[in-house]
Amino acid sequence: MVKPRKFKTLKTFTAIGVATIAVGMGGILLGVRGCNNAWNNKEIERLSSYTVSYATGLSGHTEYTKYQDGSQDLKIYPGLGHRLWDSEFHEDLDGDNKIDRIRRHGSELKMNSLRELLIRSQDYDTNKEKFDEADANLQKIIEKYPLR
Q1: Distance between CA 126 and CA 128 in Å, rounded?
Q2: Distance from chain centroid for Cα 78
Q3: What distance, in Å, lies between the first and last C-alpha atoms of the chain?
Q4: Overall pTM > 0.85
Q5: Number of H helices, E strands in the chain
Q6: Which of 87, 59, 86 is nearest to 74 (CA)?
Q7: How far apart are CA 65 and CA 147, in angstroms?
Q8: Can you tell me the distance from the alpha carbon of 40 to that of 22, in angstroms, rounded to the nearest whole number?
Q9: What pLDDT, on the 0 to 100 scale, is given for residue 66?
Q10: Boundaries of every domain in the chain
Q11: Ramachandran category for residue 97: left, alpha or beta (phi over 0 → left; psi -120 to 50 → alpha)
């Protein structure tokens, strides 16, 4: 009969358990990040548009699309993706590199998740910081991913 291995102290057993959990969680997180990169890091080029999507954080991603008419949009899905947490949709309708509309959505797991709709021509004075931040974010993405 094989005797079970005995740990000399409870501390040793606890340390081994904690280390096993830490290694397992690290492996899961690396796997999630790897899948996010594989699924979201891509470019789609068509006659009428160019789209680049890239992973952000553990499992979020951002999609930038430039259209043939000069308009462009930016979809931002933070955190665990666009189904579980808030997302944003920024639109530059006239191609002047200024965001014309900002849409903020809550979780798509519930109906009517639109939380905020800002239109530059009407809401800029009261939401200057939001529009300026969105403009700066768009500019960074344009510089990083120029139209091909």
Answers
A1: 6
A2: 3
A3: 71
A4: no
A5: 3, 7
A6: 87
A7: 9
A8: 27
A9: 93
A10: 41-144
A11: left
